[in-house]
Each structure stands twice: as C-alpha cells, then as structure tokens.
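Recap for those who missed Tuesday's class. We walked through two folding examples back to back. For each one, the amino acid string is listed first and its predicted structure tokens come directly after. Nothing is annotated here on purpose, so try labeling regions yourself before you check the end of the notes.
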Amino acid sequence: MNTLKKTMLSLLMAASVAMISTSALAETDVGRATYKPAEAIDIVATRIQTAIEAISKGASSEEAAALIKPAIDFSKEINANDKVDNARAKANRKLKSAMSHAKESALQEAEQELKDAKKDFEALKSLI
C-alpha cells in the first residue's frame, strides 16, 4: 500500500510538471486580427495624423473627438513587453488629454497633445 501511494504521488507530480500551460497554447480568436507591435504603432500614428489634419482643416470638436477615439482604442493592440507597455500608457494619457480638450472645444491644445502623443508612439519602436 505504501508503494502504491508513493507511485501515485510520483505520477501526480510528474503529470503536473509535464502539463502544458494553456497560455502557451493560446491562439487568437477566429476573425480577430492580430498585429505585430511595429504595425500597431504605425496604425496608431496614422490615426493620430488623421485627427491632426482634420483639426487643422477646421473640424468641429465632435468630429475631432470621434477621430481621436479609434487611436485610443487601437493603442491597446500595442503589446510587446513591460517597457513598451509603460511608455504606451504614458503616450495614451496624452491621447486621452487630447480627447478631453477636443470635447471642451480647445482644439489648439488638442492638436498639440496629438502631436506630442504621435512623437511618443513613434518612439515606442525603439523600445521593441
């Protein structure tokens, strides 16, 4: 009986050590596009540039806020490591600040925040 207990315990320990993590097997959902960090950074920078151009052409505050929102949402796709994530969060705060300036009809401040955010997002490529 003692040998059986030791054998079962050994098998249980071996099975738990050999078990593969589900995160290692994780795949993307069907229909969900995934992007490499550099691609995601380029897409966010493009969306920020679109918002900057719209503001400089005289877009209303609602239109500017509507153009900033996709950049904020898409910035969550940038995922490489902790350094990149911390820098992304800092740049994302500038985007959120630009969004609140746009909602307050302070479009000049929003445009400046967008320019700063774009520089910060483009600087993320050096951290990858």
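Example two. Treat it independently of the first, because the proteins are unrelated.
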Amino acid sequence: MDDNQKLINEQQSKIKEIFSDDHKLHEYLFQTMDNFYFRYLETTENQNLKTFQIAPNIYGTESFEISMPQALKVSDPEIKSGITELAKTVPKAERPRVKYRLDTRILEFGSDKGHLKITALVSWDFPYYLNKEKMKTKEVDFKYTDLNEFRKNLALKLEEACELFN
C-alpha cells in the first residue's frame, strides 16, 4: 500500500471513530441543517434558527414571513400565486404570514448506513397552515451506505430540497 492510500485509510478510520457515537452523528446532521436556515428560512420575523425535534424522529425548524413583498420573491409560480391570493384576501391588520419549514425524518440512522427523508414546505394557508391545497412541498429521499457518502451528500440533498424556497 502506498503512502497516499495509507493516509486516506487512516483519515477514514479517524472519521469513522468520531462518528461512531450516535450523538456526534446527530450533531453533524443538525449543524448542517442549521447552516441552511440562514440562507433559506430566516425571515424578517425569524432569525438565528436552530434545529429542534418536531416529532419523534423528525428534526428541523419552521419560520414565518410577514412581509408579503419579501415572500413574493419566490420563483415557483404556484407558490407565488398562492401568496398573491393571501396578500389580496387577508387584511394587513390581521398580519398574514407565509410559513416555511425544513425537516428531516430519520428512518434509519447510523455511521454505516441510513435513510433520511428531507422535506421543504411553503404554506400560505394563514392562519392554520393545514390545507394541502395551499401548500407546496418538496421531498428528497436520501439513502447512504457509508459515512463518507453521508458526509459528502447530506448538504447536496438539503440543497435539493431547498430549491423550493428559491
């Protein structure tokens, strides 16, 4: 084995050792998700967002935009149309808001393999946010078979889901 391959193997062993602790694996997932909130979910009303447990095995965060001009910067025509309708029909005095959410459902999670469902959501169903006809989601299925694949592709999969917010 040449020196370069030996160095790569040593580095992979160190990484695997660090992430063999489930706590460290979760911490990496949450920190990576937190990095996406600044770019995609922070609004005029919600800043410094952090990942929290939404439900068993579901982690993420949500935010609300009260500025309709800011919310209308989205490029998706369905979302834009819904937000336009919200802005027209709900009086400003009622403080209409658009809801954004990014979450990850953990179906299987370990350093050797895992399965995550990453979901981005925009809802203009003020004030309840329950009507599926007034929301749009993008779900990304992420399966990995080793730690390097997880670390390499997690941000890419989050980015893919966050395309909904553009």
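Answers for example two:
The beta strands are 52-55, 58-65, 98-109, 114-123, 135-144.
The chain has a mean pLDDT of 91.
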